[in-house]
Structures are given as structure tokens and as C-alpha cells.
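go over my protein:
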Amino acid sequence: MQYHALSFWREGFHVDLVGYAGSEVQRELVNNDDVSIYYLTEPPVFLKKLPRLLCYVTKVFFQSVSLGVTLLLNPKCGYILIQNPPSIPTIAVSVLVCLLRWSHLVIDWHNYGYTILGLTLGDQHPLVRFSRWYEYFFGKFSQDNICVTNAMREDLSNKWKIKAHVMYDRSAAMFGETSLESNHDLFRRLSKDYPIFRPREKTSEYCTVFTQKSNGGEITYIKDRPALLVSSTSWTEDEDFDILLDALQDYDARKQKLNKDLPDLICVITGKGPLKDYYSRKIEALHLKHVQFCLPWLSTEDYPLLLGCADLGVCLHKSSSGLDLPMKVVDMFGCGLPVCAIHFNCLPELVVHGENGIIFKDSGELCQHLQDLLQNMSFSQSKLKQMRQNLKSFQSKRWHDCWRETVLPLFIDSSSNKRD
């Protein structure tokens, strides 16, 4: 939603950004006279001590009041744009506010909330069935709709008679290839907090585990450096990290057999979420010889730099609906980083197997692809180089370009939120 806010601002709109605190707000939106940021109140912690159903109902009521009051007390907006999910209570509250204030509602469909709920409760659970009806009923009140895949556009039309415009996600301009100098500077900074990025041998204070700087100031890769594998996650049930851990255990065993044919690996997994502690303990118990892990939380500025430094990305996102695409892959592609992504229905709308990445189905396939792509570390002549070249066309079109083509025309007739 911050990308939407930035694009509206760049096109001359005044923007009210409403959401919960916790995620870092992009610098261009902070202290901006044309962008007002309103933080919603988090539900009280004591609600978690209530019985499960009572906790859920009370939490939804609290969120409804917080969101409704915030929207109603703000200056009237000509349009309200919401992202779905979250569905409950966002859609219903937004519909009510739009009816009261004669505003237009636009929904950005990234997935279905009921399918995410179904991951933990099961598809036939009464709450999941209610959530499905809720999204259908209130979703039809929207004046316009955006979605992220052609498959979702067809599903919305066929299932609920909702017409939507497809806007494929693209990365922002900050995502790009990282120069060797920036690579060196990044890991020198990160090594202060994460020793894994320090040089393995104390040859010079100007070295990292990947790069070295000569007395003349020239920066080069260290011979026999480890390969850098990067994954990003929200540590939720729709990503099975056991697949990656199993694949890396197999990789470690193959490395011991093949010795120098395979590089050591440093696997960096960014993000935060409910399952992070669980997987952190599993990782600590592995004790692999040739694979190391780092689970940092990076700043908004450092995350794109990290992606631009990596040799290969891994995505374990499985769409709960099979209809959305992982934004993390979009960001990796924006940095020219090929990705190994786990298969689901509409993934080929983004990842073309063998062209800009690899699609795998299980840990065995992932391990084999890692071996094929990283063997001998001859990156200048490898499949990875060709994949990076194939990503040039993807990199040429950024978020704001796609936004202006697809989203802006939906709002262009309105002057109620335009700046003078």
C-alpha cells in the first residue's frame, strides 16, 4: 500500500495512509505535507487470554471501531483504496464509510482472506465459510477492482461476477543490481552485528567473507568465496521452510562428497513472523559443515542491496488460493536475481522455468537445482548469467510505470483528492 501512496502523491494527489504501526514507512512518505499518516490502535493484548471464539469476535469489534472512527474523522476522500486481505473487518467497514460519505471504494485483491483462514481451520470450518460469503457479499459493493494475476481476474469474474483490472506487481526503483563497491560496504556494515559476514581468515580489516579491498582501493571477490542464497518470508503457514532446510541438508552432504565442485553456502533469510522462533531452533540444531544461516532484520535501504548481492533467491510461498504471486520474487527480479520458487497454479505468470528462474516441487528437486546452478562457481559462464540477462526486460518496467497504465485511469476523473 505504500507503493500506491507514493504513486498517488507523485501524480498530484493528497494521500491519507491508514494502517497499523510496526512496518517502516518509506522515507518519501514521512514528513510529507501531501501525505497524512494515521495509525490504528492495536487490539488489547489481554484479548488473547479469552476463549478463542470470544477473542476473535471481540478483536473484530475493536478493529471495526478503530478503523471506522479513523476513516470518519478524517477529511472526506473521493476514493478509498483498500488491500484484501485482510478482509474482516476492513471491507465491511470501508463499504459503510463509503456509503455514508459518498466515496468510491476500490479493492486491490492480492488474495482471498477465507483461503488463508482455511490453512489453519480447514475449508469446511463455519468461520471459513462465513468469511467466503463475507468477501463475496461486501466485495460486490466496490466501484472498481484491481488484482495481481489474470487467473485471479478470471476467478473473480466467474465466481463472484466482480470485474477487475490486472496490475502485475513490479518492484520500485530502489530495487536494482548492487555494485561490487556497495556489496563490500554492505557486508562490512552488517558484519558488525552478524559475524557470519566477517572474513574467514584475518587477512585484512577491509575484507568481508565475499570481497576484499587491495591497498590500491580495488575491490574484488575472494577466491573460493561462499555462494549467497537469499530468501524472504513472513514466517507463516503458507511457507514450508522444512523444504529449504531438507534441501540444504542434502546439499551439505553432496558438498562433502564432491568437495571443491560445490561452493559453501551462506543462506540469509529475512523477515519476521509467528514461526520465526520455531525455525530458528530447527536451524540451530542442524550443525551443517558447509551451509551457514543468518536471520537478520534489515532496513528498507539495506534489503534491496542484499538482494542485489545474492547469487540466487529462494521462494517458498505457496498461494492459499493459487491465484496470487509472491511480491518477494518481484523484488528479487527487480534486482536481477534469478529465483528458485516452489510450484503453484499461476506461478508461471511470473516465473518462467529455465528462463528467469526455476520452479521446483519438493526438497529433492530444489537440492538438485542448487547443485546444477552453483556447481564450480563459474558464474560468468553459468545458467545464472543467462537468467540475469533474461531479467533485463523485467527490470525495465517498474511499479510506477505499471501503476500509471492500470490504476491511475481509475482515479483520473476525480479531482477531490488532487493537490492544487
